[in-house]
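User: Sequence in, structure out. Go.
Assistant: Echoing your sequence, followed by the structure tokens.
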Amino acid sequence: PILYSYFRSSCSWRVRIALALKGISYDLVPVNLVKDGGQQFSAEFKALNPMQQVPALKIDGITLSQSLAIIHYLEETRPNPRLLPQDPKKRAQVRMIADHIASGIQPLQNLGVLKQIGERKTEWAQNCIASGFQALEQILQHTAGRYCVGDEVSMADLCLVPQVANAERFKVDMGPYPTITKINKALLELEAFKVSHPSRQPDTPAELRA
């Protein structure tokens, strides 16, 4: 497999965690979203992913984009360890939390949107994340064990950790979200979350390396 990724992209990080958890080795091709006006806008990358976003994954003779679609494919073709619970109710809760983050928080504060917002971008990102986290904190109080849904790592956790990193980057006050904070801390102790971390990627700038 070949993963097209940017070290700081939270969507790329979700996929890096999934690949690490499932023990899938891959080659990484960095796509710098800032340099040269954004390498994702090159004709070469547009041919790979017409949405001009990372991640993209070449695997099994196909090219996939959209992080959750990629994770679902990995889950269906390489089911161990599983990232979706067998119980239908828990499985639905995992998908709900993953969608809450992947559709309801992250797109509102991604690079393309913030460019349009301009000077107020930090305040905008803080507000988008805070309103999403207020809802998420309530949801997790009903679903969480050690992790987002019970005590097994799931697709929901793959979305949570990168979004908390975004929150920290935009200096969101995490005080009101003790459940999110506790789960995030537990997940960051796991090897798959460490090796996939933005501070440990081939394209991480020297000053941000762990």
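User: And one key feature?
Assistant: The beta strands are 2-5, 27-30, 56-59, 62-65.
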